Structure formats: structure tokens, C-alpha cells
Amino acid sequence: MSQVIVVGGGAAGMMAAYASAASGHQVLLLEKNEKLGKKVYITGKGRCNVTNTADREQFFQNIVTNSKFLYSSIYQFDNQAMMSFLEEYGCPVKTERGGRVFPVSDHASDVTGAFCRALQEMYAEVRLHTEVTGLLFQETGREGTSDPAQKRRRICGVRLSNGEKLEADAVILACGGLSYPSTGSDGTGYQLASQAGHSVVPCVPALVPFEIKERWCKKLQGLSLKNVEIKLFLEEPRKEDRPHAERKPIYRGFGEMLFTHFGVSGPLILSASSYCSKRIAEGAHARLFLNLKPAMEEETLDKRLLRDFEENSHKAFKNALGGLFPSKLIPVMVELSGIDGEKKVYEITRQERLSFVKLIRNLPLTVTATRGFAEAVITQGGIPVMEVNPSTMESKICGGLYFAGEMLDIDALTGGYNLQLAWSTGHLAGTCIPF
Ligand SMILES: Cc1cc2nc3c(=O)[nH]c(=O)nc-3n(C[C@H](O)[C@H](O)[C@H](O)COP(=O)(O)OP(=O)(O)OC[C@H]3O[C@@H](n4cnc5c(N)ncnc54)[C@H](O)[C@@H]3O)c2cc1C
Question: Is 63 within 8 Å of 422 (Cβ atoms)?
Fold first, then answer.
């Protein structure tokens, strides 16, 4: 039996503590907050989208960063295993649209409740209000060598903020990333990892709203659009001067979005951000093209517009668009079209109508920045996967040190995938600690 310390009582840490206690180790879970799983409580708008029923292939398609690194952990503890775990510990689950899995009760607190029962049943000790500020090491490696490269560090415990030292044979770091720092994930985990010699892939907020340059966006604040399509391009004029229509977008998606006082948000935008956050943080600008009527090809949309125009031929242009757009959007579309809103519909030229069709299918938005970590669902970046053994989650740099969850350089799209990565990596780390 090994003495195991798990640092961080979020999704990954709770699972790691449970899995290593269930494997027969003596486990101490340290969490600086007043309760376990503080972030879990706010996931899925308080309902906690615990995982997704997607099959393996689909599941890996939804992982944005370092999916190959995650093969072992997901094969070892997958979505079905997570659902069984929750059922076993008194939290039955249900599946909703898009394979999203939630507790039947719709209460995220029931997920944390299941973990509390599981940890108790496996005799894992939990210490709240306990912050780890340092790692303790012993030098191992070749006897008698004076060459530091021949030596390997091994972890032997942790130091707490009150100066107390706790011994351990293995330490699992599950401190989360930088997003929603009010929940406890404030980046101290990276500092601990760097004490052990690890580097950190620069962190950026992801699954995060965009700030938009166009002023008309603000006028649409609060407007939610369903069934729209976006195409996202990175602006690199020196490399690429072809028109957007001829280029391949870095992201193309269909769904729901929302206009806000600073720009755009909503599920579609959050997903798009995962494919460009790093580049935007490096200074690149991105352009979004919004297709308001993706179900219609250009020709079909033109016919539809023509029909609407025929039916409203004596009305002013600004009063003839009620069948096409929500009322808040009409003045903005009129302004962007360059057609006088007072112009009678019968006076609109074919050329004007065709350009309007193009505008409806390609409304341009310039992304100037992403919002910050306080509004980001996840962090991109973290402990480089090259420095961690994917079959065990053990550090390749420091013996006895393991990683789990968001502090690793892994991330996925929304839909329950990010929590499943925390469960899977936590479980693998917990079960791979030797006796
Ligand atoms: C608003 C929001 C909604 C989300 N909704 C979903 C969803 O529905 N489905 C989904 O799959 N994903 C969702 N996510 C993402 C998901 O919550 C995270 O990916 C997941 O919580 C990561 O788990 P973790 O254990 O790695 O990190 P965290 O949950 O951040 O846990 C880290 C823990 O470590 C503790 N800690 C840190 N440093 C120390 C230290 N030095 N000493 C002691 N303790 C420490 C922190 O206090 C914290 O409790 C959401 C995220 C947000 C912000």
C-alpha cells in the first residue's frame, strides 16, 4: 500500500482519490476551498453535463487538443464507466439532446454527493481549507554519481500554506487550469509542477466569447439566433490574399449564438473559440462570417426574397423584412445593406437584391479578442503531454508525481467532454500508482 496525496478536490482530483483508494492505497485528498467540486456545482448551468454518450470515434473527434495522448485514459475509464459509477453511488443519470448526460435530478450537487459517498466508502481522507504551496523531493538515480543528469527526482510529500509538511509515496496534481479562478483553479498547480522541473504550454482562455469590432453588434445585445452557420477565418493577409469564399475556414459550425454588449457568445461561438484562441492571443485577428439562412442555397434564398418583395412591393424596404429576420435584426440588416430603408421595394434593383442575398449568407464580423479566463469554460495549454506518460499519467521528469484533469494541455468541445477528460485522467492516475 502506498501513501497517496491528491492535490485539488475538483472533478479530476475527486476521481483520482476515489480510484487510488479503491485500488487499496491510503489516500489523502487536499482541497483549498471550503467544499469539494466547487466548479462542478456551476457546470452545465448548475445541472452538470457529466459526460457524453458519443461512441469512441465521435468522442475523440470532440477533443480539440492532444486527443492521442488520451487514448489510454479514455479506454480505461470511458463515458459508460462514468455513468455506472454515478448510478452505483446514488446519482442516476439521463441522456439529453446531443448525447449530453445529466443527473436525473438536474442538480450538479448530486454528482459531488456521489463522490463524497464513494470517497467515504473507500476510506479516503479529505482535508478542506488546505492549500498546497510546495512539493517535497528526494534525489534518486545512480548511486554515487555526481552528474545531475544521471539523477532523477522523486516526490516524497507536499508542503502546506501553514508550513506543515506531509509525507507521501505518490502525489497526484489535479489543480485545474485558470478559468473561473473564483472556483479555486487559479494556476497555482502550474507553479507546483514547475518546482518538479515541468514546463507549461502558455495558457489561453478557450470555450470563450469573442469581442467584436463592428459597432452594430452592440445594437443586437440580447438577441439569440438559432440554426445559423458560422465560418471562422484567421486573418493573415501576407500569407493569404485570396477572398474568404475561396479559402478553407479553420472552423465551420451550425447552431445557436448570442449577441452581447461586447460581441458574440453562445454555444457556436464558444466552440469556434477553441480553434483560434491561441492564435488570437498571439495577436492574430479572426473574421467570422455569419450565414443567417444556411438551410437555403443562394439561389433558393434569392427566390424567397423575390417572393417576399413581390408580396410587399409597395412597402418601404425596412418594412418588408419581417418574414426573414427577428425585428431587432431588421434595422441592422437595412443599414448594412446600403439600401435606403425608406426605398419602396418595387424600386430595389436586381443588383441590390443579389448583394443583399450575399450579405444574409455572409455577414462579416471582426474578432478583436477573446474574453478573459473569468468567462472561459476551459483553459487551453498547461502541462505538456510530452512530459507525462499517457499510460499512467506519471511525470516523465519526477518519479511518483502524477497529473490529472484540466491542468494538462488537453481540452475538448462542450457537451460533457471536458468533465469526462477529468474523470478519465483522474481514474487512470489513481489506479496506476504502484504498491
Ligand atoms: C461555467 C462552467 C461550466 C462548465 N460546464 C461543463 C459541463 O457541463 N460539462 C463539462 O464536461 N465541462 C464543463 N466545464 C468544464 C469543467 O468544469 C472542467 O473541465 C473540469 O471541472 C476540470 O476539472 P479539474 O478537476 O481538472 O479542475 P477543477 O474543477 O478546476 O478543480 C481543481 C481544484 O483544485 C483546487 N486547487 C487548486 N490549487 C490547489 C492547491 N494548491 N491546493 C489545494 N487545492 C488546490 C481548486 O480549488 C479546485 O477545487 C465547465 C466549466 C465552467 C467554468
Answer: no
Cell of 300: 433558393
Q: How far does residue 134's CA lie from ligand 1's centre (Å)?
A: 20
Which residues form the pocket of ligand 1, taking CB atoms under 6 Å from any ligand atom?
Answer: 7-13, 30-33, 38-39, 42-44, 48-49, 131-132, 174-176, 179-180, 183-185, 188-189, 377-378, 405-406, 416-419, 422
> 121: helix, coil or strand?
helix
Q: How confident is the model at residue 9 (pLDDT cuts 50, 70, 90)?
A: very high
pLDDT averaged over the chain?
94
Helix axes 298-311, 350-361, angle to 10 degrees: 120
Is the predicted pLDDT of residue 147 greater than 60, yes or no? no
pTM of the full predicted structure? Answer: 0.93
Q: Which atom of ligand 1 is nearest to the CA of 30?
A: 43
Domains of the chain: 3-203+380-431 (3.50.50.60), 209-371 (1.10.8.50)
Quick check: 433 and 401 in contact, CB under 8 A? no
